[in-house]
## 1
Amino acid sequence: MRRNLFKNKLGLALIALSLFAAGCGNGGGANSTANTNTAAPNTVSSSTGAASDTAAAKSLTIALTGDAIGFDPQNATDSISSFINYQIYDRLVTFNDKLEIVPQLAESWKASADGKTWTFQLRQNVTFQDGAPFNSEAVKTNFERLINPDKKLSQYATLGQFIESVSTNGDSEVIFQLKEPQGAFLNNIAVTSGSIISPKSIQEDEAGIAKKPVGTGPFKLKSWSSGNEIVLEANDQYWGGKPGVSGITFKTVTENAARVIMLESGEADLIDKVPGTDVERLSNDSKFTVNTRSTNRVGYIGINTKHAPLDNVLVRNALNLAINRETLVNKLYEGRVEVATSFISKNSFGYTDVGAYAYDVEAAKKLLQDAGVKEGTTLRIVLAANAVQDRPAAEFVQNSLQQLGFKAELQVLELASYLDVLKNPDSYDLFVRGASSVTGDGDALLRDSFLSTSKSNYAFYANPKVDELILAGGQALDKAERQKNYSEALQLIKADAPWIPLYEDTVQIAYSSKIEGITFLPSLLWDLRGVKFK
């Protein structure tokens, strides 16, 4: 990485910055027809849509906290892969900055009265980055891949399992037949799992999609040096207009201080997850802009309910009572985040304020005594290294549990190792994670995290009544009925305490004031279709 060019400067800066270096909605209803305009997102400036052609477009450099896992949008689960895939691929519909549904590769759509049949009219004269035509057969090929359980794609559970069949009517009309009504169907196909991959890629080298992505989006992959950088180049034939930058380089920079130095030295044009101690200083510098946004992400500690003594609800409630969330939010995060009052964010449809767990150490000790938990019991906590915003909270919880009498051990793992650990219930007791409803709707998050049959239910939580309510909420077309089901489910989940919800997250992104045209989504994705230099 180019960071080596300023190695000495970085070392001095890390010393100077050591005081702060931490140890680290719903849109588009049934029976409606969308307008045919492209998205008009809320951007850094008033610019919207794809940037106009510029004679001397420059390349953009972004410093991220971690690397991607792969570029197959139907088989990726990490946030960085999703972020980069968002720039390479398009979807039938997409989100504006308020997570409202707007057209993308589909110009309009309608649903049947029972909510089980969806018909989309497709945009014409669009080609994939390999020259293959975009049409109804391309959409059919993509979704038939996704709905095939034998493919064992990670996004099958999120989207594929709900689709019965996909058919075409000419080149520009595609029809989805759902197995059951789905109130959040449009939201679910608007996320990266609904991305449309070149059918040529699927047919000729399906296994290679993760390393050789081909979409219809504004940028295409040029190179990938794992753990170092990902380079995208502009797709000059993009149907939405030639991008305003010649390319984008994503640097993997895990150290907070290093990302700040790269921004200030001009080595990066944009950095994510700005350390709190740098926010005010960068905000007061006219050369930079700091964008602080509320997100729909809840930072939490998941509890492995298969492991004794955590299989006892008394113990899980004790862990929740031992955490002083007000101190965590106001002291550790300096009030930049909010105490979580539910298991999904207030920015997501389905949210209900079930109340934060009280802070009562004596009550927690009494519960542990009643449950027969011995002092010195070991709890292994795992954390992904790229989740830098969660590390202070993880250490705070570790310390709180130690004061409660546990031997709490925190292990920080590289993302790939962390995800592997979560697949083995015998390898952890607690896990640090963020619950972000990328669809803007509680349906997908609740299904993934709390449905007893979900492979993403890393707490191994099981409550038949909660299963019933989540499924009923997903199938209902009436929003009031959906809300009622989700509210009841969230109340039951709180009583069962499979998580330790901590805070509703905010995100601080800093960038050169010479940049404009980025759409920041509450789901932590950024749409770079309109980005350009002033």
## 2
Amino acid sequence: MSPSAEVRPPSVRVSVVVPVFNPGPSFDDLIASLERQSLDASQFEVLLCDDGSDAPTQQRLEQVARAHPNVRVLALPHSGWPGTPRNEGVAAARGDYVQFVDQDDYLFDTALEKLVEYADAHASDVVVGREVGIGRPLPSRIFRKDIPDAKLGEDPLLEMLTPHKLFRTAFLRENGIRFPDGRVRLEDHLYVMQAYFAARTISILASVPCYAWVKHPGSASSSRIDPESYFPHLEAVLDIVEENTETGRMRDRLLRHWLRGKILKRLSGKRMLRYPAEYRTRLLDVVTPLVETRFGPGVDAGLAFPQRIRVALLRAGRRDDLVRFAEFEAGLKARVAVTSAEWSRGGGLHLAIKTAVTQGGREALVFDDETGRLSSLPLESLDELPPAVLVAGRELRNDRIEVFLEGEKPGTERRIVNEKLRDGGTVRVAIDPLKVFGGEGAPSALRLTAKVRRAGWTFAVPVTADAGALARAGASPLLAGSAVTITAADGGAVEVRRSGSGRLRDLAGKSVRRMRQLARG
């Protein structure tokens, strides 16, 4: 056969790099998800980067490799942290792109195909595929829409700094982007921020679920940090930001992410109260000077209202009041309740939903009519704080409620309300059963949940109701299709349930609707 007639094997589009160390049973879920990929197995490879696992694990990995021609095992000396195995995976990668996956997580079935297509279409150096939290909450703003050319400091890229992304392999090598070797906290932040600053195009693929980030008991993210060793690693991330930005709003906006998420979050509500007194003292001894030296007033100014109070107390050295403020936050309760439910003749379910934030059965967030200051705080002396700290102007203007319908499967939530909270806190919700229960594989039950933003605090809660308020809705009409009921489950949580397949009733409901529309026309 002449060289021109040779049949070349398809190129490897993506290398899936998995750092491995003595994985548990969930590793089988990862392998199964790779077997289900819609991208042909000849177009991707899997590099199992074994960080010195025990003999049974080594045998297990070799069995996986023997059963899958596109799987390779890299046997590595034990380093004790995933950074070095990931680096070795990138060095050995044959793919145009690298996708990092952790051994306890998995990929959705079309992930690799869609990620590669998206990267090709937009010449992306980095693609942030939609992550879905399994047993853990994840930020949602970053995945509200596809952004082919996301801008650092403008788009919500910092919300997701995990390494679970697609990177162009040549881009990583040309820019010398590596994970730190050895046990380094926040190594993912160091890596991703290097990539973000070096990238010409960063893309967000929000419309397709790509990565399942699974929460397991005892995972590193659930353990308490050691303040003295953790925060020097945070400063290394801050150094990268400062090296790549000028003094001003852009730098303040980026630095604010770590002040908010890595320091102030640790001083909030129930989390702060769980600390033993000795640990709390150690933590505050470390973070107080760090806040003074690394974060200026421009960083503070862009914080949300609760965080502005917290950082002001921290800067003022008012440690007892920091604890009192944490107690106040821990006692805040949001209740989102259905107060009325009725069916329209057109087949829609109409709900009135009321929101309240209370503490001890009373309204918790009380603002002075004249000054606009929060007056319900149980602190020693409010007058000693800068007056502007207790004013929640922009936050009150942004009070909002989102209502969702959620099935049992992860990633199936549908937002049905996204409105500002008005005086009284009541919103109207309309649900069309033919739409929410339509389509192949539609769930038979959907629960209502809500996310409430009030004065800068955010609450994620189930929508509840008294059984009596729902009973008055009665039976669903013909134009709703299959018989649908709205009920209060255990604890009062509201569910909308469909009885049986009801295909004939769905067809009848749709037909009558079309006839009515034609008649109106």
